[in-house]
Amino acid sequence: MLRFLLSAGCAALAGTLLIHYLRWSPEKMVAHFFFSDDAFFYSVLARNFHEFGFLTLDGEMSTNGVQPLWMFVQIVLAKLFPNVDGVTLISASSWVCYVALAFAATWFVARGAPYTMCLSALIVAGLTLLNVRFQSFVVNGLETPLTILVVLLTLFMIDRVARNPSKSSPRQLTLAITGLAIFSSLCFFARTDLFWIPLAVGGWLAVARGDLRRKWIPYSIIVLILVLPYLLSNYIGQGSLMPISGRVKLFYLTSFYPDLQSYLHSREWQGLFIAFARFLPLLERLSVFVSLTFAAAALTISQVVVWRDRSEPPIPFSLKILAAAIVGHILFMQFVYRELRPYTAYYFVLEMLWVTMVLAFWAKRTHSSDAQKTLFRSLRKYAGTAIALISVAVAVAHAVRADRRPSSYWVERMNLAGDIRRIVPENERIAAFWPGCFAQFSGRFVTALDGVIGSNDYFQSYVSKNKELDYILERSRPWLAIYLPRSPDLLLGETPPEVDEWADTYITRLWERRHTIEIEILASRLLNREGGGWYLLRLSETHRRDGAP
């Protein structure tokens, strides 16, 4: 009963902290920066799917640049509630998933005697579940809360399968393995970079003893049956097994940072370490190097805690499997994917939650120890209580300091969407770099010139050849919505404008065409005295691209 009350209480508090996801209008949510721009891809794609029969942002260009499970959820919700705004559906489903996540995570760690149940719940709730910084990483309109919820359900299934398999009947074990294969596959569908979870589970079954070892083949078959159709549809439709978004980002990244030195001098590799630095207040003012050290130390110490005592396992077996998956995930993201700017901290929410869950089990174990022959062991006994109190203090400190003011960056972005609705004819399509907000609120179909939510054909023919602007000029669609850090005069100078990140290379593209493209400013929403802000431009070619008059 106490376990249920702790879980329900944490879920209720989490829902209360995020109640604005149910009460606020879409416009107010956006103004306060509670949504990532990519979140609007899902609401627009879900709406367009029911109109066109395929995933498309502009009604023409097909795409697969989304996480499939979250996309499926939004498509189903759009079908069930056709008269409800897509942003409202994303808000409500995000809230439901996070509340369920808070319940499941608390239930997972709240084990043992009543006092240690409370210790574990307070540590995980304070450091993560009720930490508004952590919530800002998880709940941003994207797939993250659903992903972590599915991972937790998979952990429950792992522990169920691992618990005395010899005492289960063949039918019970088969059903458990089937459920485990389904949930492991859902982890991949929730975030495709978490393919490490089904691999880690399969590796465990392959080396397990007794009846479990014979189950890795049926497990693998079920996973393949579920995953292969998705991979094949990607390959046939978009020329690659994985979503187009990853290929596009990697192309821009390698083009902008051609060597290791330029990459290391950028912010592209810092997402993991920024994540740990920002959600713990004691680290938020320290350098990225110290954050890196903290993350590495946390992983190392946790591994020692996991493996050193086999007679009395300090944590559930499922966290050991998850540890293997997390190591693979971090290595893959840091050395293969590599597009890890600070905003990508939400990629590593699973790592944050894993560390705090391991810490909660360690704290519970130290309190349960009856060895008090020395002062050190006596103090160690109460380490869990101290950690729990610190965790609560962390949650309270972040809640008090939370900035709930509107973001002028997003307010003006919304205002430009209104300008587009007013200026651009209803039957016209516009183009934009990073177009989610405009696609949602402008009332016009929007082509994503960056290609992240585009097609393989567009990537091969335009993005990979640095010809993104040619796409709209060839189709006589002159409307372009963009952000400029300074006045548009920076596009006309003889020296190239300074661009700090690959995501801003569209500024260079415009500057390179300054002699062949005429730019007319139709609307502007300024953010600084230098003329930086959101612009609606109309482009026209001054002469043919081959140089003829």
TrEMBL record:
UniProt keyword list: Membrane, Transmembrane, Transmembrane helix
Transmembrane segments: 89-110, 146-162, 174-196, 216-236, 286-307, 319-337, 343-362, 382-400
UniProt name for this protein: Glycosyltransferase RgtA/B/C/D-like domain-containing protein
Organism phylogeny: Bacteria, Bacteria division TA06
